[in-house]
Amino acid sequence: MQYLIDASVYVFRAYYSMPDDMVDDAGNPVNALYGFCRFFGDFMEQVTPEFIAVAFDESLSKSFRTEIYPEYKANRDPAPEELKRQFAQCRRYVRSLGVMELASPRYEADDLIGTLVEHGRRQGRPSTIVSRDKDLTQLLGKEDVFWDFAGKGKLRYEEIPGSFGVWPEQIADFLALAGDAVDNIKGVPGVGKKTAEKLLAHFGSLDVIYDNLHRVHEVNVRGAKTLGAKLDTHRDDAMLARKLTGIACDAPIDDAESMLQPAPPQLGAVNSLFDEAGIGMALRRQAERVSDIYRHQ
Rounded CA gap, 143 and 188, in Å? Predict the structure, then answer.
């Protein structure tokens, strides 16, 4: 099993849940750093993975999705400078623990994770995706796991419909139909989540829906008689959205197989980071325990 962590989810969670009066000697906030390091240290102690990578998001200004649709995620405010600084520190911490850390200006963390999921499959190795973001469930095969660590727990392939309403391979089509306000994806106007779920339950995929618009009236949803015409009118919107909601699995990643295997932590680098941030002994001792685990394997 390989473990692929969607880091930004946990950095943001720490930033908004940890006290913002946690600061270093210069008065810079370190709450996101502290919370993320605690999460990641807990994870490494609990799991001691043989294969692991941690993916971060960078600026979306050069993302292939913004080339397709400039308004993609344009509704989001830029991250404040104190959070950008802590993101960089979190990436330093992951590298200091000897773990593969990756980010790209062109590909999102989801795409980097998707690429590593496909790499693992070629090696005959399933993946556990550690995240709270339902978009990533589209990557699951029958041997894979979606793990909301310290949250709702683990979900397997067959459990996804019970939580998200559709099968993993339908997630991108679902978002293309219903839209995704978080990412500023409009989808098909007037098609909500329940309608999208019922369309996909009946037809299976977005392409099959559009191949059978003359049969959409058969679906037991409100407004079924006019739904086919609505879908036809907004066909281009749906197909554009589908280009945005699907996860790319072809990001360039060098030496993935070697990098996925953790190296012994560099405690000197960990302590230098913690000295700068004014972080005390609890997390340092945790890093030492992680180091002991990997040095004795």
Answer: 33
